[in-house]
Amino acid sequence: MASTRDIRRRIKSVKSTAQITKAMQLVAAAKMKKAQDQAANGRPYAELLNKVLVSLKDCVEEGVHPYFSEGKGDKTLVLVIAADKGLCGALNTNLLKKLVSTQIEGEVDYVTIGKKAVQGITRLRRNLIADFPIKDPAKFAEVRVVGRFIQEKFRSGEYKKALVVFNNFINTVTVTPTVEQILPVNPVTLGGKRNFGHAIETPSTAAGSEYTFEPDAATVFESVLPQYVNDTIFQMVLESRASEHSSRMVAMKNATDNAKQMVKDLSLEYNKLRQAAITNELLEITTAKMALE
Fold first, then answer.
1. Which of 213, 226, 229, 260 is the most buried (most CB within 10 A)?
2. Catalytic residue set
3. What pTM, to 2 d.p., does this model score?
4. Residue 140: which H helix or E strand, with range?
5. Pairwise CA distance, residues 83 & 85, whole Å
6. CATH number at residue 33
């Protein structure tokens, strides 16, 4: 059984840990609010752009742009977006589990954002061809480099499609590991509440007529589709960052609450031992007095 001195040391240690986790919780909460707002503000634009392009995909002629059809290659390119740091619960572990459980045919090459993604892909012994460190908060200029890299690889004819694995932010306590196809153009769900599976119903599509492009469809798509890929990847990074800070805030809050409960339990044990020691001393004094009498 531990002595009262050992228990006092443990109480002091747990209190120190609770102060650290409380500070980390407050920092994560501040970052979480900014990340959530940034992710929520970017969703309407990403949603509308995706809906328009998914609708146009069914209306334009085949071969108008390579982003509307699978590539000629047999391999698949997968972008994995994870956190740079730990202490955020099972966020990164669940993302890797989702990646492992996803059935992808043929040979697969990986591109990563985040140190935890690099560590996970290396541990799984997968073929990692590029890593892009993105600072926090994420900036579009940095993410655009990733988008250009993926587009170049896809247009080279080496890959038939490109997928993105990321944490889809639903709310503070709910994060969903998600796999989305970004190339060729495909319905993408962001925020867990949107369904892009149906084309936009417009008078043109309802009547069966075609869209009119100026100067021509190829020129329009050559300008719009690269922007679509870059913006969609940027939004996925924002969703992942919001998920990371939310998960870290929740994890640190749970750690702080557990530490406080542990202090209560240790204090109770300490008081019991102290009371038992006092009782023993009183018994010894009483016994000695009775013996002298």
1. 229
2. 88
3. 0.83
4. helix 140-155
5. 6
6. 3.40.1380.10
